[in-house]
Every structure is written in C-alpha cells, then in structure tokens.
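Bit of a strange request maybe. I'm writing a small parser for structure token strings and I need a real example to test against, not something I typed by hand. Could someone generate the tokens for this chain?
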Amino acid sequence: MRPGARLMGTLLLSRSEVEQLLPLADCIEAVQGSFLAMARGELLGPVVSALHASSGGFHFKAAGMGGYMAGKLNANFPGNPARGRPTIQGLVILCDAEQGEPLGVFDSTAITALRTAAATAVAARFLAREGARVATIVGCGAQSRAQIRALNLVRPLERVYAYDLEPLRAEKLAGELGVELGDAREIGGADGARGARAGAHGVLQLRDGRLLELEGLVPPQGVRTNHGSCDSILKEGPPT
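Reply from user aminoacidic:
Good idea to test on real output. This should exercise your parser:
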C-alpha cells in the first residue's frame, strides 16, 4: 500500500509517515492548546479506560475538540522486547465529531512518544524554575529520546543525566544524545541519577517511579519532577 494511502476515504498513516508529518515543536504547541481548551471546558471527554491481560494491558483514550474526535488504543506489554517486539503498539482513529465519519487511522507508536514528550515540555515550560538547564531522565527506554529532545526545545539544556537499572541502556542513550545535542551538553550514563541528586537544578523525568524507590533516590528540593507511565499498575514516585 502506498504511503498516505486511503481506504474507503480514510487516510492511513504508518509510523514513519507520522514522524515526517508531525514535528515535535508543532506537537508541543498543539498539546499546550489542548490543555488550555480542556481548562476552558471546550473538549469532548476525555475518556480513559484500561483492560489488563496476563502479561500486559490495553489502554484506550479518547477526546474531541474543534469538530474532531480522536481515540487511541495502545497495547503495553513490557516483556515484548525480549521477543523482539516493541513494548507499545497500537492505533489512533480520527473521526468527524459532527457526523461520525472515520477520517484517518494512524500508527500510534510515534504519536504516543511525541505527545508524551510534548506534555513534559509544556509542564517544564511553565513549572520548572527559572534558569533550569539540567535534566535527569530515569528510565532510558524508547520514550527517553523524545523526552530530552522536547525539553531541549523549551529549556535549552546544558547538562543531561541518564539513568537506568540496566546501565547499558543509559550508556547507549548518553552516546546517542551526546552526538545529537552537541558538545555543549554533558550527558552522564549509569550513575546519572546519583550525580544529578547532588547538583541538579532542573527537571527530573521519571518513566517509572519504582526506579527511584529501588535505588533510594530522592529528588532535590525545588526540582520539577514529571512522572510518565501509561500503565496504571506501575507505581509512580511522589509529585514534587
């Protein structure tokens, strides 16, 4: 099927096509606008539901604004990487909210990463303290790259610490982003969380609050902490 194909008038987009068509900077502004619309009571919904399976779960989220409704169904199976499959897979469906017509079906993987990272950026834009230029990311999976890129767009980073219970993942992230963000950034590897504990003055991004609990790490006073998990089973750290 050709790129951007249509099925009975419905646009179909793959992950790579979504990545090409939705720049992260644009996604940040769209998410900020959606938060404002929600605060003004202009949204349909949102609706959030979950169905847990033996080795993972399914999560459905839907909302509408501006004459459109979007629903996302994601499967989250943490054991998938060991099978050579991504942890998160799913689809987004876009419909006309006036007549119900299906307008598009999109791979959700890139949208999930971009939207989650955009929400982090919006939070940092308004809630991180002035002059914050240091970020620590705890949990260096697929989402971590988008998180750092998004933060760097709203709060240009001077230093980034990366930490994971699997040190090789932290080292890999540090190597990749060290090249991408340039020599002006210092990116720590496996000891990132402990190093940041002493000197961080910026943003601490958690993919799973249990990492802090397991390692006995406590965010420094005044550090903005973002918690990110689409799995309601995972325990998240205390908000700061």
